[in-house]
Write a structure and sequence with these properties.
Layout (H helix, E strand, L loop, with lengths): L1 H16 L7 E9 L10 E9 L4 E5 L1 H14 L6 E6 L6 E6 L4 E8 L2 E7 L7 E9 L2 E10 L2 E8 L17 E7 L4 E10 L15 E2 L2 H13 L1 H9 L4 E4 L10 E3 L2 E3 L18 E6 L19
Parallel strand pairs: 4-17, 7-13
Antiparallel strand pairs: 1-2, 1-12, 2-3, 3-5, 5-6, 6-7, 8-9, 9-10, 10-11, 11-12, 14-15, 15-16
Length: 308
């Protein structure tokens, strides 16, 4: 209880100092999605995070931020010889969501092929049924809630100890923070992985990147189909024939960074390769898998949203 009271006080103070919507906390989840029902043993995995503000939330991948941190660590080392060696055992989600209940908005941010697209989603709140059952997750007392949402039946566990009505993905609208959620078939799973308070020095804003291309779902679908069919041709057309050296994908800040022919584009304060980090110092990049058994299917016949 003391921990909760102190956090409430810090939250109120932080909100009072800022006119912009900066997050005051973030919650981490281990995400699993069985995207191909013919290969249930090969789900997509990622570490995702929801940044939490008083008025809104921002859901995105965090594995790319971990990757950025490792790049920064290696490049700042006195022994760095230009050869980056990175480990990867997840697939960064390429869809981020901003939820703003007061404005009745859900914004979808799609990132692929070095582009960032912004789409409006229909604003809808899951119709939750709250149950008496409780359990402890991460030291917090959580209560059970269920809903049928976007074609799936979800069970979520939320805590009123943390004053946020948000959660992972589009799941929100409960009187407390959702710490875990999964659908009935366990095809979409968000498992609690930690909670962190943030101070005013964090460089994240709960807003769409100013360089995002305002688009419709149909336009983004067409672009993505072209990218999936031939990623190299898509990237070369985008960059005028130059090739991509390294891409950090979506990040936990105001946008990801793509390094094209040694030049940063779409840079942001959250990207590891920025400021004093000189991309021209990178001679080679080797990506190794942390888990040789991680072989996610590229086919998606079981999307998270089974119906609009």
């Amino acid at each position: 209880m003391k921990r909760t009271i102190l956090f409430f006080a810090a939250l109120a103070f932080s909100i009072g100092l800022s006119a912009q919507e900066k997050p005051v906390a973030k919650v981490h989840y281990q995400f699993k999605h069985i995207n191909d029902t013919n290969k249930r043993e090969n789900p997509r995995l990622d570490e995702v995070v929801t940044y939490l503000g008083q008025k809104g939330s921002y859901y995105t991948s965090y594995s790319s931020e971990r990757l950025n941190q490792e790049v920064k660590k290696q490049m700042e080392s006195p022994s760095f010889d230009g050869n980056l060696v990175l480990s990867k055992s997840s697939t960064a989600i390429d869809r981020n969501f901003i939820i703003q209940p007061e404005e009745k908005k859900i914004l979808e941010i799609a990132r692929f092929g070095g582009n960032t697209f912004l789409m409006d989603n229909a604003y809808d709140v899951p119709e939750w049924e709250i149950h008496d059952e409780t359990k402890t997750i991460g030291g917090y007392t959580c209560q059970k809630a269920t809903t049928n949402y976007k074609g799936r039946q979800y069970t979520a566990w939320f805590t009123t100890d943390l004053p946020f009505s948000f959660g992972p993905w589009k799941l929100h609208g409960l009187p407390g923070l959702i710490l875990s959620a999964e659908d009935l078939k366990k095809e979409v799973v968000f498992e609690y992985a930690g909670f962190d308070k943030l101070d005013e020095t964090n460089n994240v804003l709960i807003e769409a990147p100013d360089y995002a291309i305002k688009s419709t779902p149909a336009e983004v679908k067409k672009q993505e189909e072209g990218y999936r069919a031939n990623p190299m041709a898509y990237m070369q057309a985008k960059t005028g024939g130059s090739s991509t050296t390294i891409s950090s994908g979506s990040s936990g800040g105001r946008g990801g960074m793509t390094i094209v022919s040694g030049r940063p584009s779409g840079s942001s304060s959250s990207s590891a390769i920025s400021g004093s980090m000189d991309p021209s110092k990178i001679k080679s990049l080797t990506v190794k898998s942390d888990n040789s058994n991680y072989k996610p299917s590229a086919i998606v016949n079981n999307p998270i949203e089974l119906k609009p």
